[in-house]
Structures are given as C-alpha cells and as structure tokens.
Amino acid sequence: MSGDAWIRRFHPVSDAPTRLVCFPHAGGSATFYFPVSRVLSPEIDVIAIQYPGRQDRRSESCVDSIGELADIIAAHLEPLADKPISLFGHSMGAMVAFEVARRMEKGGTQPLALFASGRRAPSCHRDERVHLASDDGLIDELKSLSGTDSAVLGDEEILRMILPSVRSDYKAVETYRYQEGPLLNCPITVLTGDNDPMVTAREAQAWANHTNGRFDLKVYPGGHFFINDHATAAMRLIRAAAGSRAVLAA
C-alpha cells in the first residue's frame, strides 16, 4: 500500500531498475495483479492501479470514461517517472494503459513498453451496449467471458455489490472513441487469445498502426481470459522485454 489511493504496491521494491504499471480489466481490481507482483519482484517494481468504486474504494464514485481515467492516472504516475516505466493492461485495462501512454509521451516521458492484452486496437470500433443491459444481462456477459471467479458469480450479495463498477467500466469501454493524434514512440506488444470473442486476429494486428516503435504480437490458446492460463509465459515475456529495454534506456 501507499498513501495514494490509486496506487497499490504489494511487494515494494526501492532499488528495482524499472517499474511495471498494471491496469485491471472491467470490473477488476488491483488485487488481480498480486500474483504478477509476487513473481516479478524484486527485479521489477510492480504497481497495480486501483480504480474507484471497488474493494477499499467502494464508497467512491466510479469513473465511466477512459479519457478521464487516463488523465487522472497519468497525473498520479508522474512522481514515479524517475525510473523507466512499462505499462500492462488486460481488456479495458489495455485501453486505459494506451491512453496513459499517450499522455505520458505528450508530457515528455516515453514509456519503456506498452503490453496490451485481450483487447482490440483503439481504432477498431464495435457497436456494443452491454452497459445498457439489465443486471441479469450483465451477469450473463461476465459468465460468458469466464473472467469472474465462479464463487463470486454464485453469490448474489457479492454480485450486486460489484455490478455498479462492472456497469461503469463497460460504459467507459463501450463509449470510448479513438481520437486521432501522434503515434506512440514506445514499442507495443499485444497478447491475445486465439478464441477470444472480443478480439479478432485483424483487430489485434491493428495495434501496429498505433506506434512508430517496434510491434510484436503473441497469440496464445484460449478465450478472453487466456491470460489466466498463460500467466507464466506472459510474465516471462514481460520480464525479458522490460529488462532488456531498461538496459537500452539507461
């Protein structure tokens, strides 16, 4: 924990050469990245973002705009730019991470790398309106993507507790519209599942159009939450990429 409500450090590392900032998926929280922090520390200082409206921030109003989230988070990351920073986001988190990277580069700080997982490129729009569905419809969506613990889906009280943040996050994602602007200069690595209903191969490849830097695409077996089954491989990739690029940036 830190004194900043947006920042979570589960395994604080003061002397790591680089930092990794992790952005949760829709309805997700910072604790989703506790295992990532445990594995990558102490080589990398892992930071997880905690959006308002969930867990210890449940009493706070949710933010239902990707742009507004990115504005706030980019400002909170400014004091942490004394070391090279890589960004990782899954699903909605990938969009927030992308917009944070744009703001960082506009402010003069180039991220070491952007890892975008389980999300189509920002310029690939689909007309989706899940955030307007009934509570039961929203729950059906969560079940179909298999990203929420089965114990949670079977507990009516917990479900009703998290649905407001889930709905707000879906609204943020579904109302997001990419605004033309300078391409990123940082490299982008995209991770995707080969059976993800939310991302086609073409939509994953389209991330290449958003950077002047290197682009890599990694495809894994699985659906939208393929990352749960391939966490070890993904963290190996992040460790290698962040480490080598930190050396180059030094």
From TrEMBL:
<dbReference type="InterPro" id="IPR029058">
    <property type="entry name" value="AB_hydrolase_fold"/>
</dbReference>
<dbReference type="GO" id="GO:0016787">
    <property type="term" value="F:hydrolase activity"/>
</dbReference>
<dbReference type="GO" id="GO:0008610">
    <property type="term" value="P:lipid biosynthetic process"/>
</dbReference>
<comment type="similarity">
    <text>Belongs to the thioesterase family.</text>
</comment>
<dbReference type="InterPro" id="IPR001031">
    <property type="entry name" value="Thioesterase"/>
</dbReference>
<dbReference type="Pfam" id="PF00975">
    <property type="entry name" value="Thioesterase"/>
</dbReference>
<dbReference type="InterPro" id="IPR020802">
    <property type="entry name" value="TesA-like"/>
</dbReference>
<dbReference type="InterPro" id="IPR012223">
    <property type="entry name" value="TEII"/>
</dbReference>
<keyword id="KW-0378">Hydrolase</keyword>
<feature type="domain" description="Thioesterase TesA-like">
    <location>
        <begin position="21"/>
        <end position="242"/>
    </location>
</feature>
<protein>
    <submittedName>
        <fullName>Surfactin synthase thioesterase subunit</fullName>
    </submittedName>
</protein>
